[in-house]
Amino acid sequence: MTLKQSLGVIGAPIAHSLSPLLHEFIIRQYDLPFTYSAYHVEKESLAEAVYGAQALGFRGLNVTVPYKKDVMSLLDEIDEFALKVGAVNTILFSEGRITGYNTDVFGFLHSLAVENVSLSDRDVVLLGAGGAARAIVLAAKKGGARSVMIYNRTYEKAAALAEKMGCVAVSQDYFTAIPDHAVIINTTSVGMHPNVNASPLPQTLFRADCLYIDIVYNPQNTLFLQYATHAGAQTVGGIGMLILQGILAMEIWSGKSIDLQQNFGALQDLLRRALGAQ
Ligand code: ATR
Questions:
Q1: Which of 4, 102, 133, 219 could tie 128 with a disulfide, CB 3.0–4.6 Å?
Q2: What is the pLDDT of residue 277?
């Protein structure tokens, strides 16, 4: 019998994480020699948790809120792209070394590809200016966006991120004169469970010809996406990004390439059912 190596996700809170369900499915589907669990880690125990996992012979960890930045100082090596993003969501333990990666950005881009949506030559407007926004700015650029604008509740943060990333900060007025067929991406946590009755944009500013993407996946149909659908616009929710960042992490841990489309539908159903039951 092959010895199974441990994988897990660390964060706080972690009780409602869908990662174990997602990864156990992938492990079963591809008969990979791993087990995967969720671990609640307090901030002061972060280093002990990472080094403890290494000592216990773990193959890797996913890192989620609020540790994607904090964990970086604990690693031996950080992938160039994760450095650019400024966040690590995947750790690999290999040959005595700890390496950090970020699979969120490509997870996001692959999820758009799976949903037959492209950012190429589109004008992209991001809502939010935090860590997630930074990752999505990079994704928009990699995805070939013609322009990237940042709108944030606190304008100064949008201006600071825009300056760092070589894009432009805009005020809410921008949405009244938005370019045709623009892509509007919510990177804030507004509308996330349990505050489901909130949208990062007022309903009056939604338009039929734009594409609206939300990286929030709980609930699946956020108020932001409901407003977009009501306006007659196309929408993409956050479950696809969750699935694909996970599959890309599993590729890093297993060293195998995994077909990104093959199980997408089944995983979507599985996670949607789990969200419905929460
Ligand atoms: P993350 O790393 O997940 O992006 P973050 O760095 O705390 O988290 O950033 C959260 C983003 O959501 C910020 O852009 C924040 O806006 P502010 O910069 O004005 O704080 C935005 N955000 C959070 N709650 C919000 C709310 N109720 N309305 C509008 N924006 C909100």
A1: 133
A2: 79
pLDDT at residue number 1: 63
Alpha carbons 215 and 241: distance in angstroms, whole number: 7
Q: Is the CB of 143 under 6 A from ligand 1?
A: no
Q: Which two tokens stand for residue 235?
A: 């929408």
d(C-alpha 261, C-alpha 41), whole Å:
33
Q: What are phi and psi of 49, to 5 degrees?
A: -65, -45
Strands (E), the chain: 5-11, 34-40, 60-63, 77-78, 90-94, 97-101, 123-127, 147-151, 168-170, 183-186, 211-214, 234-236
Give pLDDT < 50 ranges for the chain: none
* 55 contacts 3 by C-beta, under 8 angstroms: no
How much is the pLDDT for 64?
97
pLDDT in tens, 34-63: 999 999 999 999 999 999 999 999 999 999
pTM here?
0.96
> 56 alpha carbon to ligand 1 midpoint, in Å?
36
- Per the document, the length of the chain is 278
Token pair in block for residue 93 = 């333990």
Atom of ligand 1 nearest to the CA of 127: 14
Mutate-to-test residue for ligand 1 from 136, 165, 188, highest number of ligand atoms within 8 A of CB? 188
The pLDDT value given to residue 278: 73
For 138, residues 6+ apart whose C-beta sits below 8 A from its C-beta are: 84, 85, 105, 165
The answer, yes or no, to whether any atom of ligand 1 lies below 6 A from the CB of 126, is: no
